[in-house]
Structure formats: C-alpha cells, structure tokens
Specification:
- GO terms for molecular function: DNA binding; DNA-directed DNA polymerase activity.
- This is DNA polymerase III chi subunit.
- The chain is α/β, with parallel strands linked by helices.
- The chain has one domain (3-145): DNA polymerase III subunit chi (Rossmann fold).
- The protein contains three helices and seven strands; from the N terminus they run βαβαββββαβ.
- A seven-stranded parallel β-sheet has the order 3-4-2-5-6-1-7, with helices on both faces.
- The mean pLDDT is 87.
Length: 151
C-alpha cells in the first residue's frame, strides 16, 4: 500500500526557516538514500529546485549526496533527482519528497510520499487539502512532529 508521511514543522523549530527546511529535506534524503532508495524532490518552480540543489552542494563532504536536477546528471541518474511542478522524474523512483505547496499529481507512481505541514497558517491549510486528496486516493497516512535538530 502506498504511504504518505506528513512532517509537521513547529513554529519555533529550525525547520520553520527556509535553510532549516532544506537541511531537514537533506537529512531525510540521506536517510532514505542510506536505505537504498532512489528519490525525487518535488519543488514549486525552477528557482526553488535550483535553491534546493545548491543547498545540497553546500553540505560538508561527509554529508554529500549525489543529486541532479531533472534533465541533468549521468545517464542512469543519481540517488536524488530534483524537479518542480509540471516535471516528472527521469528515472524510476520509489519515493517523492514534496516541498511544493500543492499536491504532487503524479504521487501515485511512488510507493512512498513525504510531505510537510508548514507552520504558516495559509500554507498549513494548503497542506490539509493535500492530506484530504491523499486520503481520498487511498493512501495510508501518518503524521510526525519533527523532533530532529540539524546542527
């Protein structure tokens, strides 16, 4: 069964900032890649995707994960592919991390979806709508409050 995990971002958490959110997405990516998964990060637009990719380049060498933007990178892909609304991953991916503020319309092609509930009220409401869409599509849903602190 396909699953969706919503990570709830606390108002006073590090993840409430853009850099903290990027760091948490990187932390999750490292976790899943470490388990052998190939994943796709879905961003809002090209600028957002490029910012996430740039963040992934700026981490320490011990934390580096091979990644590429959709349409770039090696022929057989890297463990992490980063794209944005309207694009699909180039290669077979088991998991999507949705950093966009809308439902990943292609999410049903993934066995696992990671999504976020931001602390800002309007974005939180949009996340609730995504939750409803996933539930209506028959996904197994869970929520997790972020306890991790990336330092």
């Amino acid at each position: 069964m396909n699953t969706v995990t919503f990570y709830i971002i606390g108002e006073n958490s590090e993840q409430a900032t853009e850099q903290g959110w990027f760091a948490y997405a990187h932390f999750l990516s490292r976790h899943f890649v470490g388990q052998g998964a190939k994943l796709y990060i879905n961003c809002t637009d090209r600028q957002h995707a490029e910012a996430v990719a740039e963040f992934f380049w700026q981490v320490s060498p011990e934390q580096f994960i091979a990644h590429n933007l959709v349409g770039e990178g090696p022929k057989n892909g890297t463990p992490v592919e980063i794209g944005f609304e309207g694009l699909k991953p180039s290669w077979n991916r088991q998991l999507v991390i949705n950093m966009a503020n809308s439902h990943a319309t292609f999410a049903n092609s993934f066995g696992q979806v990671v999504d976020f509930v931001p602390c800002e009220e309007k974005a939180k409401q949009v996340a609730r709508e995504r939750y409803k869409i996933y539930r209506q599509a028959g996904y197994q849903l869970q929520t997790i409050e972020i306890q991790h602190s990336e330092s």
